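2024-03-11 09:14:02 INFO worker-7 job=invfold-0412 stage=load source=structure_tokens
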């Protein structure tokens, strides 16, 4: 019987319910959001309101909706300072004091890093690969030591963001030099463990439905001596294909767990803000099925920038209404 048929049998038997021999608890499952834009939004005077129409701290609103985890991206030398070390430490302290679990996402760039661009920071552009490894290590240590000095212990740290073809191009482009990408991952992993030995290191790939992509990247890392603790993935389906993409993503998680013995986490999800009811269905299904993975290997689901509203910076996949209140989509996190 093929692995995929076994998986379909798994889904039909569980009916997306958690196995009774290993029930999850609220202690392990991360329900949360990446809110890296929050401090910049607040600086522009943008307000947030709970469902009763009362102005409230955005993190408190998210916590009231059942979230327990906040993710912050880190850029090396951002032009305006947002998402740089100082901003991230300040916001992580704020979220931690509110009882939220923390995930730190190193982009290893001065701006966005994603499948289409993995640009080196300006100061790292013309250095040797050995110095690039050193720079990655020193940057990672600097941010994490600053967090530690402020009594924040991240539960998870991402070494790279959506590294579908590696990071820090061209040196770390996986399709050209998987060994060098693996070297960078090993350097980041070691730096995280040096500061926070108990923190779990995530390697994050987009397109969580693409099993072939995940096998290529993680076979390559494994074969080149890299290690990681959690396989992270993104999932941004459309309103017409979310059911198919969700099942493909869950199959991918099932396969990754069995293939590498690693935990998995959906660290980014999103759907058009004007499709909140469909988005709630999608989130409810994904959260339920991720929880249902055996041995608590499915660690959580995080929404990407739900608080972005009124087309903030042209982003239309938030989960907030135009009146500044969270949309019905986020009710999925209450379960």
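2024-03-11 09:14:09 INFO worker-7 stage=emit residues=335
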């Amino acid at each position: 019987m093929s692995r995929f048929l076994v998986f379909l049998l798994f889904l039909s038997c569980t009916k997306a319910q958690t196995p009774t021999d290993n029930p999850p608890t609220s202690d392990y499952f991360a329900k949360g959001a990446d809110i890296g834009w929050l401090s910049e939004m607040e600086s522009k005077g943008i307000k947030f309101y709970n469902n009763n129409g009362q102005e409230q701290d955005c993190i408190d609103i998210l916590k009231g909706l059942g979230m327990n985890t906040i993710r912050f991206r880190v850029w090396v030398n951002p032009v305006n300072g947002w998402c740089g070390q100082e901003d991230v430490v300040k916001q992580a302290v704020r979220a931690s004091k509110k009882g939220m679990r923390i995930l730190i996402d190193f982009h290893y760039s001065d701006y966005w890093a994603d499948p289409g661009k993995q640009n080196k920071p300006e100061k790292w552009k013309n250095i040797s690969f050995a110095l690039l490894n050193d720079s990655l290590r020193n940057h990672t240590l600097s941010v994490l030591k600053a967090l530690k000095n402020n009594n924040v212990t991240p539960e998870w740290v991402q070494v790279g963001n959506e590294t579908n073809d590696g990071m820090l191009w061209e040196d770390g482009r996986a399709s050209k030099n998987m060994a060098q990408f693996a070297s960078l991952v090993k350097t980041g992993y070691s730096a995280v463990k040096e500061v926070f030995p108990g923190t779990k290191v995530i390697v994050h790939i987009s397109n969580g439905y693409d099993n072939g992509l995940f096998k290529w990247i993680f076979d390559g890392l494994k074969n080149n001596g890299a290690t990681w603790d959690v396989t992270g993935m993104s999932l941004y389906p459309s309103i017409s294909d979310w059911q198919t993409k969700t099942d493909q993503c869950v199959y991918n998680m099932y396969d990754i767990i069995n293939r590498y013995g690693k935990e998995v986490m959906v660290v980014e999800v999103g759907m058009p803000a004007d499709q909140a009811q469909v988005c709630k269905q999608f989130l409810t299904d994904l959260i339920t099925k991720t929880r249902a993975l055996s041995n608590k290997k499915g660690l959580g689901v995080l929404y990407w920038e739900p608080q972005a509203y009124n087309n903030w910076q042209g982003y239309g996949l938030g989960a907030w209404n135009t009146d500044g209140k969270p949309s019905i989509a986020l009710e999925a996190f209450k379960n």
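2024-03-11 09:14:09 INFO worker-7 stage=report msg="The chain has nine helices and eight strands."
2024-03-11 09:14:10 INFO worker-7 job finished
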